[in-house]
User: What shape does this take?
Amino acid sequence: MATNPPYGDGHRNGAVKDRSQFQNPNNGIWYKRDADTGRIMDGKADGTPFKGVRREHPSEK
Assistant: This one.
């Protein structure tokens, strides 16, 4: 995970590690994937990407 000191200041220092995100072209939902297992962890239905999570290249599926 990324580090956040000083705590409570409302921002993250660095990227979230061991995760990536991709957008499903059929429904527009952004999904977060665990880099170790490849399992989908979460989906974001509002159409905006997750903050601080690296994006997968479309050809890397």
In short: The two ends are 23 Å apart (CA to CA). The chain is about 0% helix and 35% strand. The CA atoms of residues 29 and 42 lie 10 Å apart. The chain has a mean pLDDT of 85.
